[in-house]
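Quick question, first post here. What does this chain look like in 3D?
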Amino acid sequence: MLIDIEDGTEVPGVDDGEAGSAVARALRAAWSGADPGAATRPRPAAGRRWSGPRVLLRRGEPSGIGALLDLALAGDPERVQGGVRLRRVPSAGGRYPVEAHVVADGRAWRYDPVDHALAVPVDGGGGGAPGSGGGVPPPGGGGTTVVLSLVPQRTVWRYGKRSLPVLLLDLGHAIGALLAAAPVAGYAARAEIGRPARGLAAEAALPWRDGAVRWPGAAPEYPLAAVRLDPVRSRPAFPDRSGAPVHHADPSGVPARAAYPSGSPVRPRYEHPGGADAPGSAPIPGAGGAGPGSEPALHASLADAVRVVEDALAELGEGAPEGVDFAAPAQAPPVAAVLERCSSPWEEITAAAGASGRGGPPVERAPAPGSVPGGPRPPSADRPGPPSPPAPPEQERSPGAPPEQSRSSGSPSGGPVDPADAARARIGADRVVAVRPAGVPGLGEALAPRSCGQPVVAEAAHLLLLLGAPESEPDPWRALAEHVGAGIAAHEAWLWATGQGRAVRPAGCWIDAVLAAGERRGRLIHSLAIGDIDIHQGL
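> Answer (accepted):
Ran it through. Tokens below.
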């Protein structure tokens, strides 16, 4: 396969022209590769804690909203890096800009992924009125919605003007994690983007003002997606941490309801990077006289980057002419893969690691479906890696047409799904290139300087390259759909690769790279690095 990488922007940065949409300006700024500067400034917390009573959700539940959030978004109690609790869902730079609000029975709950807890609810409908009672949202009773919003200042702290693409990819990964976990937790799910942010804020009882959600003393928040959940009777057996299925009798999977006294609507409090109770933690906004301004503002050097990114998100929040729905995968990934998914170190992913048969110290993970320790590998792991992409479908999309996002992945036989095929099923075969970098002359040298400081990506044993439209003046709504769709596609491919026992790591920040492979041409917007090693065999 011959692959060329070329520069794709005619306008290198927003400073060279303010024409076009706010989204286009923010994307051009990201593609320009502007150096975000040293990340030594005061770091904003990678999550919010919430004042007032909370419901602590149990881990390992068989079904219900607690199980869904545990599998999709929760922090991992055993994984902490750089003072940040790592979570099920990946995030560029560990910044975790996605906030989740659970809406059920007309009430909105704030989710704390670090403690795996729900804050006492407020009444829905946009009034923000205090709730008079509480309990965990039930799995039935007309469905549940998870509203997802972005807090861009967390990502801008690390990536500066490069932030908009990685923010939208993070949103896509969060959606992909919820869609994949839903059938395990007993839900049918679909996701929506492109709806007006004001409507999503009202649905989740969020304080909307001046084009954003604005809590007292808090960074602005932009609701951009909703995941709709409906309970279903059948679901796969939920394994424990050893991979053994748990036969559960309780269909709810949630604790009994508990009554709480009425009070003021909950507001976020902020976690110090060293932990919620570390010395120097910020006071609770709106409580104890702290008031607005209790969350430290980003350094002045980032003011322009914040403006560029927030203007783009506000524009996307105005709502697309037509919304876009994402269906859950037609075939759910292996349950064990949902449990054990994590971003692997580069040492396990490079071609050198595969050639040597080792990729660093052993990694303890649950057995892959169909495998036993010391026994034969799962059938899908016998393949050397993602195959070359098939020929484009007979009826190509016309230039400028929006991508078909409602497709979902699945194998005709119901067996394992190849990771590349899962991505193709989600965003289209013409938007996915599966390649061994070592087998394509010059590819590694072209990718490394465009990788936002991750040149080792060119040494991966396999890469899934996910493409968008090559234009330097993209339509805002197409850009939203392409980036979110790429995040979902990468997440689903990641889960299937994990089910094969492969080491996997997403790489989402790319500088101005337009890829041409045969008759296909598209902008590189996301990628998934996959190792050769079967991590279940002999590491």
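The longest helix spans residues 476-499.
The mean pLDDT is 73.
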